[in-house]
Amino acid sequence: MLLDRYKVIGHLGDGGMGSVYLVEHTTILKKFAAKVLSPALSTRQDFIDRFLREARAASVISHPNVVEITDFGKTPGGEPFFIMEYLQGEDLSETIADEGPMRWSRVSAMILQICGALEAAHEQGIVHRDMKPGNCLRVKSGNNKDFIKVLDFGIAKVQSLEAEERSLTQTGTVIGTPEYMSPEQGWGHPVDHRSDIYAVGVILYELLTGHVPFTGETMMEVLNRHIYEVPNVDHPHISQEVGAIILKAMQKDRELRFQSMSEMIAAIEGVGTGAEPVKVVDEEIKAPWGPVTARYTTAVTQITISSERDVTAEGVPLPSEEPAPKRSGAVIGLVLAGLVGVGVIGLVLVGGDDPPPKTDPTPVAAPAEDDDGDEAGEPEPEPEPPPVVIEPGAKTVQVMISTPGVDAQILDARDEAIYGKTNAPEGVPIRQGEEVVKLILRADGYEDLEIPVVPDVDGKVFEKTLVKSKSAKKKVVTKKKKPESGETGGDKPKPDPKEDSGGANLGEIKNPFAK
């Protein structure tokens, strides 16, 4: 029995700071959850103060999307505990692990709830500092299966408790979860509400793609990527409007981010309405080896449409229209990563410089035709490019690329080895990885088109429009095949590209109450 009125019914789970129990109020017979600080930590005043601060912070925020804390006390053994509403559901990290990337219509509804909860916290002078999917519980409320409750204000910064804050943390201390930490958190600098805005940008990215923007072998590597790199927002579920919102929230300089949750909410609600698009800016970042440019504007323009023509705010294809010519060639961005931990300084450039110039194949004149339409003077066919070699046992993913109206070769930009052809229903296999792979789409009479692909999940779909060459035509090297009897030799109808079904397994599923 706790406080002579809460009967302990069962054990719900354990976390880093303690355990959570299901309890029932003996008078009103309502079930609650009791979070109890572990006996080992109950002898540490700093952990007791932090535990108490979690209860205080959550209790002063009056918002339906923030977990409600109603009581506080000590067990008969002296361990502090607090009583909070009993919630049945799963945290968003579990949802992402189970379902993978999600559509904008669903994601926007959930992220707006998270933004609303944090807006209420910020109005009370409270900065969460550890926003992540594991601290967002998804529960059923009425007909809404995606009702969000924000949890765990244990490391929240409370402006009204600044003296306590200084005693619990010191300048230079890194607080938070590396995959969701803002650059200023990575540096150990003082934080404000805009660190929460950065973290929400990361969560938005993860809900749409199924994975976090930056990973690494060590905490220092992850933090350095947050400090120096620009996230790759080129994904089938991310339109340019949404990509700009993610990048705006994740600008390195907090002065360039959304300055309030209300600003971010307005931008999210404006997607698909014709509202003025969010603007991002490039940043000059000071690094130990010199200034680094974070090219946010390039990251937005690199977003390719990976479905029919375009995507709506719902993340689904728009009705088919006559295709308009798209830009010839992909815009190549500069991604910078500085690994400055453990005495190591590194600089990683992805697509930063133009590739070495290559000699175009000798132009070949189009074959002449006689009055009967027969080709004359056809040159001898040249051998096909060598196929891409993938080591035995290496994991691969299928990538579908369609080029309406023409079949094109898919070449590796490094050595022009061939992966296969566009418009293949099954796609082409590419070795799985997190790094950008540059491909060249090449067809006779069309300009080469270079596209960046991240082969991290199976089933990615891209549609690209090739632009007819205005100069001499490049000759695609293929083995010539004469039409069989009864065939016209014309192009066969192309199957529609499949929808992206790739998912991402995020590994270990965490208990929503684990701290």
Question: Could you give a quick summary of the protein structure above?
Answer:
The chain is an alpha+beta fold.
Describe what this molecule looks like in 3D.
The chain is an alpha+beta fold and 515 residues long. The chain has 3 domains: 6-85, Phosphorylase Kinase, domain 1 (2-Layer Sandwich), CATH 3.30.200.20; 91-350, Transferase(Phosphotransferase) domain 1 (Transferase(Phosphotransferase), domain 1), CATH 1.10.510.10; 380-463, no CATH class. The protein has 10 helices and 23 strands. β15 and β16 form a beta hairpin. α3 runs antiparallel to α6, α3 packs antiparallel against α9 (261-269) and α6 packs antiparallel against α8.
Features:
3 domains; 515 residues; Transferase(Phosphotransferase), domain 1; Phosphorylase Kinase, domain 1; 4-stranded antiparallel sheet; 5-stranded antiparallel sheet; disordered C terminus; 23 strands; alpha+beta
**Main sheet summary:** 5 strands, antiparallel
Q: Strands across the major sheet, in which order?
A: 1-2-3-5-4
Strand content: 15-25%
Instruction: Return the domain count.
Output: 3
Question: What's the topology here?
Answer:
Blueprint: E1 6-14, E2 18-25, E3 31-37, H1 45-60, E4 69-74, E5 80-85, E6 89-91, H2 92-99, H3 104-123, E7 126-127, E8 136-141, E9 144-150, E10 157-158, H4 162-168, H5 183-187, H6 193-209, H7 219-228, H8 240-249, H9 261-269, E11 283-287, E12 290-294, H10 296-301, E13 335-338, E14 347-350, E15 368-369, E16 375-376, E17 396-402, E18 409-412, E19 418-421, E20 428-431, E21 437-442, E22 449-453, E23 460-463
Parallel strand pairs: 17-23
Antiparallel strand pairs: 1-2, 2-3, 3-5, 4-5, 6-8, 7-10, 8-9, 11-12, 13-14, 15-16, 17-20, 18-19, 18-21, 21-22
Helix pairs in contact: 3-6, 3-9, 6-8
